[in-house]
Amino acid sequence: MKKQTIRMMKPRILFIVQLPPPIHGVTVMNQYTVDNPGWQSKYEVKTLPLHFGQTLDDIGKITPLKMLHMVGFLFRLFRILITFKPSLVYFTIVPTGKIFYRDALITSLIKRFCRCIVFHLHKRGIEEMANNSRHKRWLLRKTFTGVAAICLSEKLTADIRTVYKPDPYVLPNGIEVVSTRIIKRNNGAPRILYLSNLVKSKGIEIFLHSLAELHQQGCRFHARVVGAPVDYPIEQAKAFCAAAGIAHLVDVIGPKFGPDKFEELELADIFVLPSFTECVPLSILEAMQFGIPVVATSVGGIPDILQDGVNGLLVSPGSSQELSERLKQLLLDKTARIQMGYSARERFMQKYTLEKFYDGLTGIFEQVLKGKMHN
């Protein structure tokens, strides 16, 4: 009797994600996720991109063209669910704002064909949205029923407790290791780096005001503002610096990517992100990788990344005075800067590499496919 070889079918995973452009933290992580070289050996994979906006200005806006694209997307999704028959659907749902209604509709369609759905939450604000409207709370609970949810940090799990009863998975972002050593800094004026889009909610105005205060106090520094303008034009930033008498100390240079961005990180002594709202920003992880102490606001998942006084300093959002005080602390103490930089690099390598992210996400997929939900 001939031996029959049975070919085990690999689980099929459908990724529904927004990919670049535009380039921001969520699209970068989504690209990392679908590009994982380890998927091919374990799963059959297919990606259905959410391409409704091409620029940062498009985010969150509903237009007739987007509505037309949505109709086409639903037809493509329906066809893939019928033909590909995914074992698991991974969806980076937007659970707040007007876009949530779109994603709730997408989820309801997926649930008709697939029982294993993983929501990876890169946004916060669910609790506020649920508490502001009974209708939205009902729809959120219905959408989150029967799915597995991934939060980016322990602190962010509180945001979904109103609508999601099981314990969510916790998986922090991870990024590629591009720096294999801590850069030795020079002995000149300490260099402060703001590396993020020029958005008021990112605290760009607060940062510039803090620089003006540091200059008035006689502190030596040189600052670089690197990022694409969104609701705060580059010209406005330069005009503020000129009026405050710090134009010679602050370079506002627009966005940089790849090796050019890494060069900015290599030259920085202090990294700043004074956002009003965040989850787990990739820019902080990038700074930690390069051994740079971080000064950031205590919002979202940032307190889970930064240990105040160990690998960085935490400040309250919206206070240029507190920010300038913390920056001054590092400007005047080179030893503390260097030690925090070493600690930042060590913590990055322990928790926030792309390899650790891939291992964590694979583990979650395996548990969900086996029907093991957090309870």
Please name the defining characteristics of this protein.
375 residues; alpha/beta; Rossmann fold; 6-stranded parallel beta sheet; 14 helices; globular; disordered N terminus
What does this entry look like structurally?
This is Glycosyltransferase family 4 protein. GO terms for molecular function: glycosyltransferase activity. InterPro entries: Glyco_trans_1 (IPR001296). Keywords: Transferase. Residues 184-347 form the Glycosyl transferase family domain. The chain starts with 11 loop residues before the first strand and ends in a 6-residue tail after the last helix. The protein is of the alpha/beta class. The chain folds into two domains: 12-174 and 354-369, Rossmann fold; 191-351, Glycogen Phosphorylase B (Rossmann fold, 3-Layer(aba) Sandwich). It is globular and about 65 Å long. It has a six-stranded parallel beta sheet with strand order 2-1-3-4-5-6. Strands 9-8-7-10-11-12 form a six-stranded parallel beta sheet, with helices on both faces. β11, α11 and β12 (312-315) form a beta-alpha-beta unit. α5 (126-132) packs across α6 and α7 crosses α12 (320-331). It has helices at residues 25-34, 39-42, 64-83, 99-111, 126-132, 134-144, 204-216, 234-243, 258-267, 282-289, 302-305, 320-331, 334-351, 354-369; strands at 12-17, 44-49, 88-91, 117-120, 148-151, 169-170, 191-195, 222-226, 250-254, 270-273, 294-297, 312-315. 42% of the residues lie in helices and 14% in strands.
